[in-house]
Amino acid sequence: MGSGLPCIKPQSPKIFLFISALTFIGFIAANHCCYAESPPSKGAQIEYITPDGQFSSVTATHLLPHASAAEFIDNDTVSCILREGETTFIIELPKNSPRDRFTFLNENAAACGELRIAVSNSPLPVNSSKWTQVDGIVPFAHKRLFKLSMLGVSLPRSILILANSRNAVLT
Regarding the domain delimited by 45-167, which CATH topology (the fold level of the hierarchy) does it fall under? Predict the structure, then answer.
């Protein structure tokens, strides 16, 4: 059955395999280079001391389901139930988080009191004099959402929040 047409061997499978191999090698090389330059970022972490003196720690990547008084909503939002007395929060921000804002969500709408906010470029103990005060004392009454602006503060790595609250007496 000679039609006079030359027999053409399909090269598509070989070309496809060659291009796939190059793409795979390129992906591995690109991923390795990026990983070497920027190791995986550590998630946000919060350490807090409740009014009864209990110390706890929560990370954004290892959340405890409703077992703690504070939890992360996302990398720049912490939610907690402010109880009567002083609660201390030390929040360590991940390297890739936005540094111009932070949100603090109080789940106890009856709480009244004041917040003191400070920042640092390095991890510090609570009683260190190296904390930089932000916004002074912030009084609150029946307030749930605190949006803390970090504009004008040089790239904070840690945030210290001292919440001194009392439950409102309804008459």
Answer: Jelly Rolls (2.60.120)
